[in-house]
Amino acid sequence: METLxxxxxxxxxxEERCPNCGYVMExxxxxxxxxxxxxxxxxxxxxxxxxxxxxxxxxxxxxxCGWDKRVYINKKTI
Length: 78
Description:
Layout: E1 3-4, E2 26-30, H1 32-35, E3 55-61, E4 68-74, E5 76-77
Antiparallel strand pairs: 1-5, 2-3, 3-4
């Protein structure tokens, strides 16, 4: 079986308001792609320092004030 991120695959939407200004935050994608474009394709092991198995970390940011945060999305088994 394979796991996938429902946010990356458009199955859910990130609908969160900025705690700083109240504007709707935008999903800027999986944080792994900011550090290494091939990171999402690497298997989970202790050696590659993935800290949360079966999750996908996304960056949400406010386009109005620039406040951002990371959210952890549980991957789903298909």
